[in-house]
Amino acid sequence: MLVTNYEIKCNIGMPCRFAVVADLHNAECNEILTSLKTEKVDFILIPGDLLNSEIEKCPNSEKFIREAVKICPVFMSIGNHERNFSRESSIKAIEAYGVIVLDNAYCKHRNIIIAGLSSGFSDDNQGHFKRTPPPSTTFIENLANQSEFKILMSHHPEYYEQYIKEKNIDIIVSGHAHGGQIRFFGRGLFAPGQSFFPKYTQGVWDNRFIISRGLANTAFFPRINNKIELLYVNLSQN
Question: Residues 28-67: pLDDT tens digits?
């Protein structure tokens, strides 16, 4: 597992440190939990795809949230896999453990607004490899109008340029692309919603857009030159 630390200077007022646990997909989580217990973070963000099926069929995901909420507050947004598998019952079960699930919603934590933009996938709008169904633009507008410092979990990095980039949102956290699955010469090969040679698969863009390679593999071909990734992000005042 690759552990990546990012330092971002911004107008936050009060420094904070958080972890990004993206795309767990019911993968084994002991190493992740060990790291989280060692590192001191203010909160944990799960930007979608915690599950790979209904939660009762995801014992590793269930174990992760059960243990993670003992460490610090945990916030989660809705990815395409949460959309696909018994969404309502699974989300209720996740919330019962103490995770704050933000389904096109936001809440205030200390001096920060933490928000979750849900995947646009639905039963009648599944998109395809080259296009992801659009998110709730109403929610994005409402969030952008809030005056506090804002951190947005948006599972799909392909939403950034069209829907988020020009909005008054301070930090955006994404996953979904799995690092481009196969990486060579510092670039990923493929990501759903971005097709081949995608732009947004990892790293920090525009000093505000953070993308995790994710912590599991669900594709029909393996990850190559592309370790799973746990992120730690330090936000400090300019």
Answer: 999 999 999 999 999 999 999 999 888 889 999 999 999 9
**Residue (of 2, 4, 5, 12) closest to 171 by Cα position:** 12
3-class DSSP state for residue 118? coil
Residue with tokens 């995770």: 99
Number of H helices, E strands in the chain: 6, 16
Cα–Cα distance for residue pair 167/80, rounded to 1 Å: 23
Q: Please state the pTM of the whole predicted model.
A: 0.95
CATH class of the 2-237 domain in this structure: alpha beta
**Which residue, among 7, 92, 52, 73, has the nearest Cα to 218 in the 3D structure?**
52
Residue 215, class by beta-carbon neighbours within 10 Å (0-12 exposed, 13-18 middle, 19+ buried)?
A: buried
DSSP strand E in the chain: where? 2-10, 16-20, 43-47, 74-77, 100-101, 105-109, 112-117, 149-154, 171-174, 183-184, 187-188, 190-191, 195-196, 203-205, 209-211, 229-237
- Confidence label for 143 from pLDDT (cuts 50, 70 and 90): very high
